[in-house]
UniProtKB/TrEMBL annotation:
Membrane topology reported for the UniProt record: Multi-pass membrane protein
Pfam assignment, any one: Glycos_transf_2
Alphabetized CDD domains for the sequence: DPM1_like_bac
PANTHER family: PROPHAGE BACTOPRENOL GLUCOSYL TRANSFERASE HOMOLOG, UNDECAPRENYL-PHOSPHATE 4-DEOXY-4-FORMAMIDO-L-ARABINOSE TRANSFERASE-RELATED
Name under which the protein is recorded: Glycosyltransferase
Organism listed in the record: Hymenobacter glacialis
Main subcellular localisation: membrane
GO cellular component: plasma membrane
Chain ranges of the Glycosyltransferase 2-like domain: 4-167
Localization in the cell: Cell membrane
Record bears the keyword NADP: no
Residue intervals passing through the bilayer: 230-251, 263-289
Keywords: Cell membrane, Glycosyltransferase, Membrane, Transferase, Transmembrane, Transmembrane helix
Amino acid sequence: MELSVIIPIYNEEANIGELYQRLLAVLEPMALPGGFELVFVNDGSRDQSLPLLLNLAARDERVRYIDFSRNFGHQIAVTAGLDRAAGEVVVIIDADLQDPPELIPQLYQKMREGYEVVYAKRRSRQGDSVAKKITARLFYRVLASITHISIPVDTGDFRIISRKVVEGLRLMPEQNKFIRGQISWIGYRQTFVEYDRAERAGGETGYTYRKMIRLALDGITAFSDVPLKAATIGGFVVSGVAFLVGIYTLYSRFVTHDYQPGWPSLMVSILFLGGVQLISVGIIGEYMARLSANVRQRPLYLISDTNIPAIPAPGR
Ligand code: UDP
Ligand code: MG
């Protein structure tokens, strides 16, 4: 098998038909030696996505599907696809046609030039709300500034990766997946192709703000210790200031006798310190939660039904 396309599906009944057509229109003319497969991962959709996929799979043996027992989230859906994809190269693409399938030949071409990863970089993005664009921009800049590895800015998971990279990803056991970060971490020769991101073709975004915040926190906590350190440094600075203010208070109380009952300053410092402490504890909590998730070693997902045989995990 030369090429696998992994497509996470969450309530995409409006897009599956067109997506399938456009993928075939792009992949068939490529005349890939060994052919291609489409790996649809149904991430607990509540609409007619699954029957649509089963129907496609019954008519076209290149259509593979994995049906989850519930909604596990986009990153986990892609992970399941990676676990079962058979292709020498693997394309990860959104189902909502925001990532144009027509870019795949270009990505593939670049890969043939000797790269292991070719990601698609957004030149512009249409359709997304202003708030989403701003938060996404901000997030990628902050992430870039506090991590050691260089996670490319303004890219999603739309990309083509080689079998080597797939095996690398399958070696990474973490529960809180941030796949684009993991791929940067893996290394090898990486490059990009630029494209204009289209609007969502049909249906609604499955990425609620809740899921976006979780993804952002997963990305930050998985690849940076800076927030933890910032809490410590902030704690030291604030304690230092508080110590100096303490000395000053004693000095004015006993030496200069020039003091006023200081209710406001008291309130301010108590509230401020309380705030700093809560933030620090919260940051530690974020890492702790992820630590405990990894210690639990639960399976990442449960499959309800699939037509793809399992591929044994690479040895560690
Ligand atoms: N998706 C998923 N599980 C989820 C949310 C989304 O598998 O819990 C899929 C969705 O079907 C799509 C891709 O992830 O193929 C990107 O989601 P979406 O387009 O909703 O995100 P956005 O483009 O708005 O960031
Ligand atoms: Mg989308």
